[in-house]
Each structure stands twice: as C-alpha cells, then as structure tokens.
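Forgive a beginner's question, but might I ask you for the amino acids of a protein and the tokens describing how it folds?
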Amino acid sequence: MENTATVSGTEVKKYRRAGFMDEVRGFCILCMVVYHVCFDLNYTYNIHIPIMFDGWFDIIRDIFAGAFMFISGMSSRYSHNNAKRGIQCFFIGMIITFIFAFFAPSAPILFGILHFMGVSMMIYAIGDKYFLKIPAPVGIAVCAVLFLLTRGIMYGYLGPAQGVGIKLPEFIYNAGLLFPLGFRSPSFQSMDYFPLLPWFFVFLAGAYTGKYAIEDKMPAFFYKTHCKPLALAGRYTLWIYVLHQPVAMVFFLLIFGKI
C-alpha cells in the first residue's frame, strides 16, 4: 500500500512497513551477536564452544550474514536517501576499524559488515536508475549467477568455491589494495570480512526483490509483525551491532579480569 507524505516541501512516497523484514533482520543481528561473543570466548579466553567453529558452521554463519545483506538490499527500496545511509554506515565502520587498531591491533577489522553495507548502499544509490531498468526476475537470476561465479574469488578462483573454476593470477592478490573486492593478499587479516565480491550480488538481489515488497505483492504475513522483540531489534540493528562488542568487552572484563 503506497501513499505520500510531504517532507521539507517535497512529496515523497511512503510504503507499508514489512514487519517480517524487521523480524528477520532482528534475528540475524542477534545471531551475529551470539557468534561474536562465542568467537571472543573461544579465541581470547580459550573457552571452546562445541560446534560453533567447526568447518560446517561457517556455512551457517554465511547464511545468516547473507540473509542480513538480502534484507538490507530490500530495505534500500524503501529508503529515500541510500547515499546518506551508506556514508553513515561506512563512517561508523571506519570508527570501529580505528578503535580495534588502537585497542586490539592483533585483531583488525578492515572491511567488515558495516564497511560492506555502507559501500553497497552507496553503489546502489549511484546506480539505482540503471539497476532498475532490468526486470526484477532477470536481475535476481543474474545476481544468483554472478554470486556463484565470484564466490571463489576470496580463495583465488573465479568460480563457486576454492579449487573450483579458473585460477586467478596471484599478482591481483599481491597488490594488497584490492581486498574490498575480495582479492586479499596472503598476509591479509581481518576479524570481520565481507568483500563486495560476491556479497554485493546478495544485496542487489534483495533490492530487486524489494520491488515486490514496496508494490504490496508479497504474501500477507510479510507485512505483519509476529514477534515484537525481534521486530524491535530489527529496527535498531546498527546500534545493536555497534554497541554489542563494547558491552561484551566490559562484561568479559568483569568476569575474567581482562579484555
């Protein structure tokens, strides 16, 4: 359901809020918080959490992160200023980068989820009029293909996985400055890392899917709120993400006497 409102003398479109989107986003951010807390316990305090860091769990982690990116892409169709949102998100990501560089130099964050989200929003803001010329079903299909094609770039291959596809030249990775795209050098280290390739295609697929959401074409349950706490968390994901690590550090300091 679409209506309009006047902001600073300009008429803008308003869309029906999708409660289910808030809930999925809230669930994903809470999963990220749990993962990061378990990560700290495992690698900083040597408290092993069974199954949390087995190889297969990386797949679960990527599913939650991918769902968060997809929903964020959908949300971009609701926003009237993706460039502003992107700049804010990237700026906060850079603040986190500098904080970790100062307080935890052995655990840098160079292109984490906030950097990724910020750059993705800015790219979408710049290119949305071109992206939107492509029909949504075609756009979603193309994004799926490109995601699979670039999934192995982080591991040195143009293909869906490490060792599958075309091996890429090492000099691209040794350049050292292309890590935001996924071309990370052997010495690259980042405790939180989501490069544009392949993840931008998940975000963009969400943006194409968002077309159906703003046009009121999703199932009825999509627009209803089923769990208010999750929906509330989903509306404040940025603040939860920014604050959860400092809160966890204070908690660990009180319990273990060190950070």
